[in-house]
Amino acid sequence: MNCRTFRWFVIVFLVCCCAEVALLPVLSAQAVDTTSWFRLLTVDSGLSISLNGTKLSARAMRIGHTVLVPLSVLHQAWGAACAVSPAGSTLTIGSRRAVWQGMSATYRLDHLDLPWSVVPVLSGGQLYVPLRELMEPMGAFVGKRTPSGDVVVAYSTKWQKEPWLRQGQLAQLETVNLTHTSVTRVATTRKVVAFTFDDNWDAVAAVRIAELFRTYNGHCTFFVIGTNVRMHPDAIRTMVRLGHDIGNHTLSHPAATSITDATFVKQIQACEQVLNGMGLTSRPYFRFPYFAEDSHLMRIVTDQGYITVGSAWTIEDTGPNRSAALSVATVRRFISPGVIFVGHANSMATYDAMKAVLPELARQGYSFVSISELLRGR
Question: Whole-model pTM?
Fold first, then answer.
């Protein structure tokens, strides 16, 4: 074999090796720590337990008004580590640790002694613990839906280090009315307006908008695309830190009318899962990309536990003739109490429009509210 032939042989060999490596699955540098993920646990009135919408085989029990769940459910939900013995039982979620002796009336969480409303119960070889009494002191959001009476528990161990990651919109999980398939405005005499922003392709513009609203002691709502969340997690964290709501706008922004129902559901769930990995949630708000929707698709959204948030008016910031001046003129024309506007945090033109119009509306006495604040009547 001459030198030239040998060189070609080496080149072909290396190319083949590189191609083979490219086809191998990429392994994470470390295993995913699922204990840091946001999880939503639901116990319905029939004592069935669901985790992020998926029904579990385990069931809860009720003693008086207290709902108890097996420790195995807490392990599934938040990676809880537990040890049970007559001498003493421990349960650890993230950095929080609960300890109690047998069936004692109290337990110790970190350095505090707290009472059980009902002492833990051993049944069918499983130890059941009061759900609210344990998870609420842990820092979880615990609520009861009306009128169903379902108990909902939302938690992420990321909240232990960064409590502000516990979003204000979680309170809407108690009161969200899924029979209202689409919300475009709220009837009110109060001068409140809800500005919402879709997509967030321009992370700089999105953060500038988030900061601008806080200078007016106000909030807004961002409907995010999962792929953009992956690329700009710090922008999403800033939005939440400033108190704004986060809504689900699918993983990659397809028109729901052009894909199968199964793909549509996966798009909703995948966007939520990206946020869950950050300890956040989009629940209970969803907006259709392109407003491509119908009654059937809205029922799918409802079945996933969301309400569809529409808008009364678009601020004209996406067309070929878009400009800050045109957006401002649209807001001026259609502003009224309780209205929901939709814009797109995809360019600084939208930020410039907001910078021009917000002081004007503030002088007129308007307050700027998130969807949660609008629905609960702030």
Answer: 0.87
